[in-house]
Records
---
Amino acid sequence: MNSAYHYDIHFPVNMDPDKQYPTVFTLHGRGSDEKNMFGLVESLADEFIIVGIRGNLTLGAGFQYYELKSLGNPIREMFDRTIQQLEEFIQYATEKYPIDAAKRYLLGFSQGAILSMTLALTMGDELKGIVALNGYVPSFVQLEYALKSVENVSVFVSHGEFDSVFPVRIGHETANYFRNLTSHLIFNIYPTDHGVSEDNQRDFVNWLHQDAGLLSL
């Protein structure tokens, strides 16, 4: 199987060749790239494999995973194909590298958060958990996709109180949606615009450690 995506992969420095590792797959926002995402999770690199997935469409100096008809309105055919390709990529990477399939996490910002939440709904407990930063679940996903149970999926959702791209009410709506689907939900609001504060980063890094059964930083 070939990868549909360019990606960066970081292994723990003192990796045990006989061990499988919890893994975080990162998904960036529109116009960004996988290297920007690594800074958010670099402190996890001693205990997790980190796989940064680059969107395969250019946007300015950066990249995206799919295009939009308008803000908050993905081109459906491109979005559907992206979800399929990302599921295939996660399987590809799991077979290729010493990834613990029972401890696979997605961490996405903005467009990457939208994809992370959708993949949780299409993959169910094939994922251990997701971190979704400043995103939402498209209505067509909620209404038309074949969704799997996420009752056993750990979900960390956060949103900027002053988000000028996706207003904070969208964060509350997203949290309410997942609150009805899983008891393993953390939802936090941070006093930021469309970005990730140091407090937000610290909280999801500690959450990932705890959820994966590792000591907190």
---
Amino acid sequence: MSFDRTLPPTTTERGIRVALIFALAAERLTLYYEHGKWLTDAQATSLAADWLGRSKRQLAVEERRRLAALSDKLARQIEGSVSREAGLFISHEMNEALDPNHQSELALSLMAECERLLDEPGEA
């Protein structure tokens, strides 16, 4: 996954957090649907650090853990509410949407959900 190519240098700190939730949820769903396993929060936290490092950005480990937990919440919410076929489609669409040239209404609605999760009371 190429998270760093989706973040132009002008991306806000909030935008980075929302994008990380989205990208980590996509990775979690891909792993789940392809291998039947969930990415752990520790793995997601490390993956976020790798992605951020490629674009010369960083977040504190506590913040990466929080975003990893939010991505897990979103991924499991998706998995629990749709059929396997729909989940595979959503996972694919999310990964495609990591390319800024790919336009997707589904990805935009999921990005809005990532923003909502970030803004939930108790999640700040």
